[in-house]
Amino acid sequence: MSNETVVVKILDKEYQVACPREERQALLESAQLLDERMKAIRSTGAVIGLERIAVMAALNLSHELLQARQSGNQGKGANQADLLRLHEKLDRSLANKID
């Protein structure tokens, strides 16, 4: 499993994230979803500051993930595991950039 550095753009800021080549597309799609969510939160004007916007987006995505798990989508266990792994990877990446 060979890692590569992928540049993702979130809220007009670029981040370099290392990931296995076979997960590159999933990482790009995850970053795009996060970017969309963070822009939507920022546009409300109710949350100010990159860190707070990131936390709210992470909470919203985590909530959706938990709801999907609880809704009985057990037949899609591999997809849920993939989502969880990408969620954790994004959390680690954001934590490194925010600190």
Description:
Strands 1-2 form a two-stranded antiparallel sheet. The mean pLDDT is 85. The termini are far apart. It has 99 residues and is an alpha+beta fold. The protein is flat, with a radius of gyration of 14 Å. The chain is built from three helices and two strands, in the order E-E-H-H-H. Strand 1 and strand 2 form a beta hairpin.
Keywords:
99 residues; alpha+beta; two-stranded antiparallel sheet; 3 helices; 2 strands; flat
Question: What's the gist of this structure?
Answer:
The chain is α+β, with helices and mostly antiparallel strands and 99 residues long.
Oligomer: single chain
Decide which structural class fits the backbone.
Answer: alpha+beta
**What order do the strands of the largest sheet run in, or round the barrel if closed?**
1-2
Q: Which geometry do the CA atoms define?
A: flat
- Portion in strands: 15-25%
SSE sequence, one letter per element: EEHHH
Helix content: 55-70%
Ends apart, CA distance between termini: 29 Å
What's the pLDDT, averaged over the residues?
85
Poorly predicted segments = none
Radius of gyration: 14 Å
- Helices, by number, come to 3
Number of strands: 2
Major beta sheet summary: 2 strands, antiparallel
